[in-house]
Write a structure and sequence with these properties.
The structure holds 2 protein chains of 2 kinds.
Chain A lengths: L4 E7 L5 H8 L17 E7 L2 E7 L11 H12 L4 E7 L3 H14 L3 E6 L1 H6 L2 E3 L1 H8 L3 E3 L8 H13 L12 H14 L11 H9 L7 H4 L3 H15 L3 H20 E3 L7 H9 L4 H33 L8 H4 L1 H38 L1 H8 L1 H6 L7 H7 L3 H7 L6 H10 L6 H13 L3 H26 L6 E4 L7 H35 L2 H17 L5 H8 L5 H9 L12 H13 L4 H11 L1 H25 L1
Parallel strand pairs in A: 1-3, 1-4, 4-5, 5-7
Antiparallel strand pairs in A: 2-3, 6-8
Helix pairs in contact in A: 3-11, 7-8, 7-10, 13-15, 15-21, 15-23, 15-26, 18-19, 19-28, 20-22, 21-22, 21-27, 23-26, 25-26, 27-29, 28-29
Chain B lengths: L12 H5 L3 E2 L8 E7 L3 H9 L7 E6 L6 E5 L6 E4 L1 H5 L1 E4 L1
Antiparallel strand pairs in B: 1-6, 2-3, 2-6, 3-4, 4-5
The chains are: A alpha/beta, B alpha+beta.
């Protein structure tokens, strides 16, 4: 079997890397119109011309000096892993800024091919680009592509294949202006002997990075050279009066602009496009806020109505199954419990959770595609500052409405450690799709949408209060720097495909878990173990929350998957459907509020541990328990 | 080669009369030149890596009594970048 090549997709955020990755590989990754969507490495294998290629999608980076955690991930990958070819995905409509990264990547010396992505977008902006000129200047192949429509991708693969098989030379050296170039060459000659095979990158790359005094260089290269590098840096400060990394960055900025002018020019200077005018209103201090609130209200009303409609349709279908195995009850109690548990799990997943999950994931996919997320972060920046965060935390919060796990990963786009931790601590309070289903299903059965609105208002108040409280210990938030991408008309096809990926994951991962969980629950009931758990939690449940003890086991089980709450409640309290639960409205509200806050699900806890360490994970768990109890008490007093 | 925007290299009368103002209070919808970024290393490095260098010309899109400032780098024809109010006060621009 011939050796498999590794191709890394490297580019600035929101340049279309993940979209290209989805075209190349069968595995689908989350791609949306927001700079900072991919925050982790996704790999997939691709078969072309009888050879296997490992295609790797990396988080976006603006420059090789890492700003936030997501950029660190990319940099570490490029420095440590064996990459045979870099496909530099360039947003052709933002040519000049994208080329800054291209120039920096060229210094790495790893064989490279440029994908001039969003070629159609550049055309629409009236930018005429000549790829062959760029090929001349950089000495590497340039292929225009439009990943969203899959145009030009085949030629890109063809070129990369030919580049990998035949020896295609690394990018040619782009010289800086004389001042800096002398220093780089001087340092490069000293570093030359130290750069041996295991180390990636050319001596020139290390010389430049040493000048920019970035801290990720391996010490085998920098040992004994630091003092000398300091002298050179001082020379730059004297001659240019700016920090060395800024001087070097300005060089690249200058080179990129020269390149852009050489290879492209504007055909027609169009007046303000419709999108700019639309943005005037979307980002307007007053009109923007009003539109956003309207949009959110609409978002939830549609989900609520569609969810009710679908579950109403599913209910009668699922009602017909129980009589089939009713006779087992007395003849073989064990089998009856098993089958009944399986049925409850299955019915709960399809009858209650899926109806709300379907519209939620479709609307979220559609919403992420328009690029409105960045505008929401912009509008909410003021509010977020009051609770000690800034606009960028809005993205993880919005993702938290789908599921807390990707949300915790999404905090990687936040540069400052303090902001990141605080955002992660608040994510468990945002109701994920499972808890949304629980809230909607229970409030629908006991009093209509008003209950749901109340719960969401309480969520906002709790997040605001705990954010403010924690800021006292964690100091001031840092400033916001966030790119606002151009608005894009969402394509239903892309959103449908994304929804199908989420639904498939729900059907093949969550449903089996729900079925197994509810079977386990009914076995517990059979063996009367749930009585033990209930009695253990009874004092807390009855006295503090005023809830029947039977819900104790439900809460323990729901730790693994929140959807279990609905199924368990009916099983534990022996009710056929949700509306016949023997609970008063007040008890239901207390129960819903407690479930919403009481504990992040097991997978969130694990991810929190992995991303932020044990102390933060346990802290978040304890915080959730305390806040859940307080919120539930508040509801009990108010209602 | 000197960089526009580096404080001490700018001398002579021309500089004295050029009115300098921070981005937050700068006028809207007019091309401004970024003179300097008086922020700490991290935000400064962040802004530079996103393509905003001293000497670039930017347009400020929106000014309001609260909420971040929105600018677009005209020299690079880049997308719009939202900058928090605190940081915007540290970016010195001149018409």
């Amino acid at each position: 079997m011939k050796k498999a090549f590794t191709i890394a997709l490297v580019g600035q955020p929101n340049s279309g890397k993940s979209t290209l990755f989805n075209v190349l590989s069968d595995r689908k990754v989350m791609a949306s119109n927001f700079s900072g969507t991919s925050v982790e490495i996704s790999r997939s294998d691709m078969m072309a011309r009888g050879r296997v290629f490992h295609v790797v999608d990396l988080p976006g980076i603006y420059s090789l000096n890492p700003g936030d955690e997501a950029e660190n991930v990319t940099l570490r990958f490029l420095m440590e892993q064996k990459v045979d070819l870099i496909v530099n995905v360039v947003d052709a409509s933002l040519l000049s800024r994208s080329l800054e990264l291209t120039v920096e990547l060229a210094e790495l010396g790893i064989p490279m091919v440029i994908a001039l992505n969003m070629w159609d977008e550049a055309g629409r902006k009236g930018l005429q680009i000549y790829p062959e000129k760029l090929e001349e200047r950089l000495g590497i192949k340039v292929r225009p592509t439009s990943a969203l429509y899959g145009k030009g991708v085949a030629r890109l693969v063809e070129t990369s294949y030919r580049c990998l098989v035949g020896a295609c030379d690394p990018p040619c050296r782009l010289l800086y202006t004389s001042h800096v170039e002398e220093l780089v060459r001087d340092l490069e000659s000293r570093i030359q002997p130290r750069v041996r095979p295991p180390l990636r990158g050319t001596p020139r790359f290390y010389a430049i990075k040493l000048l920019e005094n970035t801290d990720f260089l391996p010490d085998t290269v920098t040992r004994g050279l630091n003092r000398y590098a300091k002298q050179l840096q001082q020379k730059i400060r004297d001659s240019h009066h700016v920090e060395p990394y800024e001087a070097v960055s300005y060089e690249r900025h200058h080179l990129a602009m020269k390149l852009t002018e050489e290879i492209s020019h504007f055909v027609d200077r169009r007046s303000r496009s419709l999108r700019d005018r639309l943005d005037r209103y979307l980002l307007h201090p007053v009109a923007g806020q009003f539109f956003m609130l309207l949009y959110l209200a609409l978002f939830f009303v549609v989900i609520f109505q569609v969810g009710n409609l679908l579950s109403g349709l599913m209910e009668p279908l699922l009602e017909r199954i129980p009589p089939l195995y009713a006779n087992l009850r007395n003849s073989a109690p064990f089998w009856w419990h098993t089958v009944n548990g399986a049925y409850q799990g299955f019915a709960g997943a399809l009858g209650i959770v899926l109806p709300y999950f379907l519209p939620l994931s479709f609307l979220t996919a559609l919403f992420m595609d328009t690029g409105y997320l960045a505008r929401m972060a912009f509008l909410l920046d003021g509010v977020m500052h009051r609770i000690g965060l800034h606009g960028k935390s809005v993205a993880p919060f919005i993702m938290g409405m789908g599921c807390s796990v990707p949300a915790v990963y999404a905090t990687r786009i936040i540069e400052n450690r303090r902001d990141r931790t605080l955002t992660a601590l608040l994510i468990p309070f945002i109701p994920c799709s499972a808890r949304t289903a629980v809230i909607f299903a229970l409030t629908a059965a006991f009093g209509g949408p008003l209950g749901a609105v109340f719960v969401y208002l309480l969520v906002a108040v709790v997040i605001g209060a705990s954010g403010k409280l924690m800021t006292l210990f964690m100091g001031k938030p840092t400033g916001l720097v966030l790119e606002i991408p151009d608005l894009r008309v969402p394509s239903a096809a892309v959103s449908l495909r994304k929804t199908w990926t989420m639904i498939r994951e729900f059907l093949f991962v969550a449903v089996p878990f729900l079925v197994a969980g509810s079977i386990g629950m009914s076995w517990l009931e059979l063996a009367k173990i749930d009585r033990v758990v209930n009695s253990f939690l009874a004092p807390f449940l009855q006295s503090v929350l005023g809830l029947p003890a039977a819900l104790g086991a439900v809460l323990v089980f729901a730790f693994f998957r929140k959807e279990l709450v609905l199924i368990m409640a009916t099983v534990a309290l022996g009710a056929a459907t949700l509306s016949t639960l023997p609970l008063t409205t007040e008890q239901v509200m207390v129960f819903v509020v407690f479930v919403t806050f009481y504990f992040p699900c097991f997978s969130t806890f694990v991810v929190m541990w992995k991303e932020f360490g044990a102390r933060i994970a346990w802290g978040s768990a304890a915080l959730s328990l305390i806040v859940a109890t307080l919120a539930a008490l508040l509801v009990r007093v108010l209602w | 080669m000197t960089y526009p925007g580096a404080k001490s290299t700018i001398n002579g009368f021309q500089e004295i009369f050029m009115s300098q103002i921070d981005l937050l209070h700068a006028p809207v919808d007019r091309e401004l030149t970024v003179m300097d970024i008086l922020a700490g290393p991290h935000p400064r490095r962040r802004l530079i890596s996103m393509g905003i260098h001293p000497g670039d010309r930017v347009i400020k899109y929106r000014s309001a009594s609260w909420g971040p400032v929105l600018i677009r780098n005209v020299t690079q024809n880049a997308t719009r970048i939202a900058i928090g109010r605190g940081l915007a006060q540290k970016i010195i621009v001149s018409p």
